[in-house]
Fold this sequence. Notes:
Number of helices: 8
Radius of gyration: 18 Å
Structural class: alpha/beta
Largest sheet: 5 strands, parallel
Oligomer: single chain
Bound molecules: adenosine-5'-diphosphate, guanosine-5'-monophosphate
Order of helices and strands: EHEEEHEEHEHEHHEHH
Shape: globular
Helix content: 40-55%
Strand order of the largest sheet: 2-7-1-8-9
Strand content: 15-25%
Amino acid sequence: MQKGLLLVVSGASGTGKGTVCKKLLEEIPTLFYSISATTRQPRIGETDGVEYFFISVDEFKNWIAEEKFLEYAEVYGNFYGTPIHKIEERLQRGEDVLLEIDIQGALNVMKKRPDGVYIFLLPPSLEELANRINGRGSESPETFSRRFNAAKNEIAVGEKYQYVVVNDTVDAAVEKIKSIIAAERCKVKRNEFLFEKLLEN
Ligand code: ADP
Ligand code: 5GP
């Protein structure tokens, strides 16, 4: 049986990772979304165990000590981490797992899991990126310029990824990610068992 794909979607803040991943999950209900843990406060409408596991800094430090994270990073003053629990189990069962994480986290996962599928989302332009960061309505002028400048620096890191998807429209970005999934499933290295099975006699 083919193992599931470890899909890592990342990109600069405000590019649309959350929006694109949400739509992708609606279209592929079998995709397992890995819920991260964070020390940031829940936003209005967010529920513990749905968007994130909201935990204290002390708990986060315990999870680090207990090696419960595949990766973790500090993003804009808060900690975020990917719990390792369940990911391997799902992959072994042949289920695809989706991580939506920041760039530092993705680079760390790349080192540990070279078999992962690393997708970098790009905004169609810097002007549109600025609109999107502002459009969320949660930014003060200071946090806007901090996020926008950080985002510009982060974009250059995208060249380390395997795939780049421009998030022009959400639907087009989702279609491209679905094509990447289909192509990855056809890779010879993920299908060696097929050759073995066919030639076993
Ligand atoms: P990220 O998770 O990368 O920080 P979000 O998913 O929160 O980004 O998106 C940032 C803002 O941009 C949101 O207001 C979202 O509605 C908007 N957005 C995301 N993708 C698109 C798109 N393809 N076209 C227009 N607006 C978008
Ligand atoms: P937000 O606070 O807006 O939900 O997320 C802020 C940033 O943290 C986003 O770029 C998001 O992708 C990233 N993030 C969410 N979960 C994780 C995680 O588990 N690990 C890492 N490294 N980044 C994460």
